[in-house]
Amino acid sequence: MEVMEQWKDHLEQLKIQLEPWKNQLEQWLHQAIEYLNQIPPIQLYAAVAVLVLTTLLLLSIRLFKRTKSNTIVLTGLSGSGKTVLFYQLRDGSSHHGTVTSMEPNEGTFVLNSESNKKGKIKPVHLVDVPGHSRLQPKLDEFLPQAAGIVFVVDALEFLPNCRLASEYLYDLLTKATVVKKKIPVLICCNKTDKVTAHTKEFIRKQMEKEIEKLRASRSAVSDADISNDFTLGVPGEAFAFTQCRNKVTIAEASGLTGEVAQVEQFIREHVKP
Amino acid sequence: MLEQLLIFTRGGLILWTCKELGNALKGSPIDTLIRSCLLEEHSGAASYNYDAAGASYTLKWTFHNELGLVFVAVYQRILHLLYVDDLLAMVKREFSEIYDPKRTVYNDFDETFRQLRREAEARADEFKKSKQMVKPVNNSKKQGQVQKAGFDKGNKKSEGGLAADEDDGDKVKGRKFENGYSNGNRIEIEEPRMTGVVNGKENTSSNISAFDVSKLQKRTKGGKKTDTDVNKGSKADPKKKVEKKKRVWDDAPTETKLDYTDPVDGNGNENIEVVAADQGESKMDIDEIISSDSEDEEDNNVVNDSQPEAKKKGWFSSMFQSIAGKASLEKADLEPALKALKDRLMTKNVAEEIAEKLCESVAASLEGKKLASFTRISSTVQAAMEEALVRILTPRRSIDILRDVHAAKEQRKPYVVVFVGVNGVGKSTNLAKVAYWLLQHNVSVMMAACDTFRSGAVEQLRTHARRLQIPIFEKGYEKDPAIVAKEAIQEATRNGSDVVLVDTAGRMQDNEPLMRALSKLIYLNNPDLVLFVGEALVGNDAVDQLSKFNQKLVDLSSSPTPRLIDGILLTKFDTIDDKVGAALSMVYISGAPVMFVGCGQSYTDLKKLNVKSIVKTLLK
């Protein structure tokens, strides 16, 4: 009981102490309202308008920046040479070689070939997404910001991987983000330094044929969650990459020997220096 | 000799290789390791065996999670190098000091490595010599601390010490290791070793070498890291070992004494008898008993671990930690969160073995990582687990059957699907659903009634065929199903059917004659797709079913490249509410994707697996 009483005393003392503060606050509030009443309403409206405009401006600048992203995504099947290409673009060498990636490689840098140029060059944000099928869901994290996609194909071991690569490309081309934003895609035939590598025309034709077949089977998939958001091409016509809503081009490169000029050109087309 | 030692980033760039070793590796063991072991969430294992034409390597690895580095050592499997674990640990320590994310060339590491290697080799030699001279004292304390890796190596060493006739057994073990049936293995391993102990000195010395390693590792990893590192191979494992070891080291291999070693459970008697009779039979029993034991012990451990910690750190310090971000995560920090996660997975009907392995793998991927500010350990662990689950459930191969059907059509041969599974899981019913689905997509289907065992099976299928208006191939009962299937495929080729759906008799995974018949059917007809039908209601048995189906298909097949299960059809999915763990168990153990999900009684009730929603349900 004693304790309770002590507490009560304590509380009352506190209340007494707080009283002058309360009065002070009320006074200030009154003063503020009076001051507001003195100001003409036009000035008030102007102030509010300025506030709203600045926030809008800031927001729009942010949105504007986002649409003009500088991200280029490197993707393709495992073993097609994405990581080598990544380091070739960044450092101009493939170092000691690479192994299967377990995590994406990311970097924001000025392309190696342009590092000697004078003047201010806008750096490129390059992402190399692993190609192992278990890691392919990672791609979705990067697609929304992508300004361009480089789809790397192994031109040397093309035929055994043709079906898988086409399937992956089909999935990519029918993704909602890619179609809606019309993200340009470059099909990069890697490893063309080897004598037995296929030409890019051959690869284009084969992939178009495969995608044509996929179109028939995929559109038939029943109510599945993996079903693609958009269909490709024009119904009734054989599929060609030109029918895509986004721009699909094809190029040749060789990661090991460092012939990546066409890829660099693609990057610079879509990320302006 | 060490064949190769590589240091690379998780992104895949090789930072440093040993140029001195410089041997060209045959095949691509590193890529295979990453693809089939590390990315499949098996990174909790101790070593990986790689087989290629003319080469068989053993690979060992270690992660530096904070810097995102991977260290891999490759050596010939015939040689049992004792110093590899030690060397990897040293290399990891030294390299992490000079590592800089911006640098890509580390030529100056050559000299350091040379030194480290000499050191490690010398130490290994020294231990071998000193141990051979001084008789070892087999006190129980030492045994208790033997680490998983060390123990594995000890096994190998002892096998190596034995005559060459053990070689075959060795290979089988190697394969099994890859498949991850580690518990089954240990039982097998014991036999050669037991005989070794009886046979003579040579093996005693090899047993000693097992101790060598454990001691050596203890010493090198000494200091502050000791307790975390010794436990690295998961808490449960050393305990399993302790139990086994008592049988092995201390006793003569007579059965009466073996019984004596297992006084804890009443079932022990029965288990060991079965082990002696047939190694395959009681795997599940043993698994369960051991793991439940070890879990109990683990429980105690967790309590012990967390209690002093809780006392030490008050509310304020934990709050401060969450704001500042923790320096690096240690095994002990992760333990409570992982335990909670494991329990949650198990309430969702994930097989215990799988939950355990997953948690180990997640722990391996998080240990040493920096905790970001404003995050709790539990949420970090949960995020890592979510990523792992998505990775596991995402199909590795394409599951677009229609695409495959069209490809087969171009080659003018029917696409053959064989439905296999245990009794009463719904093979025939779901076969009819698949047939219906295929029919909807203008594919001509034929059924083959190869269940010539259960009465009424052919009639059941005939009813479905009549309702769906598709042809059925039947030969009545008491025929060899393999022959019936073969004739059915020939018939389909004649009348131009695109797909043949082969219904087989339900069989328990332990039924040897029936499994042999199934193996024959698959070998003879070489189907395009072997679809395992499993019910979503199954819990721990999912692991047993799938692993044994796969194992039997390997063991009983007469072809050198046996077929395994290609895909899974999960039935009765509408009956389980949120207990979706069977999907995870099955996919993890077999590596095959879930191709269809049966979720009702009518023909239309066939769906595809929604990976995202499954993961969400599992972690809810």
UniProtKB/TrEMBL annotation, chain A:
A GO BP annotation: protein targeting to ER
Q: Which Pfam families match?
A: SRPRB (PF09439)
| RNA-binding as UniProt keyword | no
Alphabetical GO CC annotations of the entry are: signal recognition particle receptor complex
Protein name, UniProt field: Signal recognition particle receptor subunit beta
Molecular function (GO) terms for this protein are:
GTP binding
Give the domain of life: Eukaryota
Q: Which InterPro entries would you find in this protein's record?
A: P-loop_NTPase, SRP_receptor_beta_su
Give me the segments passing through the membrane: 44-64
Q: Which organism is it from?
A: Corchorus olitorius
* Coiled coil segments of this chain: 4-31
Q: What does the UniProt entry say about where the protein is found?
A: Endoplasmic reticulum membrane
The record's keywords, sorted A to Z, are: Coiled coil, Endoplasmic reticulum, GTP-binding, Membrane, Nucleotide-binding, Receptor, Transmembrane, Transmembrane helix
Instruction: Show the SUPFAM superfamilies listed in the entry.
Output: P-loop containing nucleoside triphosphate hydrolases
Family classification: Belongs to the SRP receptor beta subunit family.
| Membrane topology type | Single-pass membrane protein
UniProtKB/TrEMBL annotation, chain B:
Where does it reside? Endoplasmic reticulum membrane
Polar residues: compositionally biased ranges = 137-146
Q: Where is this region: Disordered?
A: 125-186, 200-250
Q: Where is the composition biased (Basic and acidic residues)?
A: 150-159, 224-240
Q: Which PROSITE patterns match?
A: SRP54 (PS00300)
Give GO cellular component annotations, separated by semicolons. Answer: signal recognition particle receptor complex
Q: Where is the SRP54-type proteins GTP-binding domain?
A: 593-606
GO function term, MF aspect, one: signal recognition particle binding
Keywords of the record, alphabetical order, are: Endoplasmic reticulum, GTP-binding, Membrane, Nucleotide-binding, Receptor
Q: How does it sit in the membrane?
A: Peripheral membrane protein
- GO biological processes: intracellular protein transport; SRP-dependent cotranslational protein targeting to membrane
Show the CDD domains listed in the entry: SR_alpha_SRX, SRalpha_C
Among PANTHER family, the record links this protein to:
SIGNAL RECOGNITION PARTICLE RECEPTOR SUBUNIT ALPHA
What family does the entry list?
Belongs to the GTP-binding SRP family.
Write down what this protein is called: SRP54-type proteins GTP-binding domain-containing protein
What organism is this sequence from? Corchorus olitorius
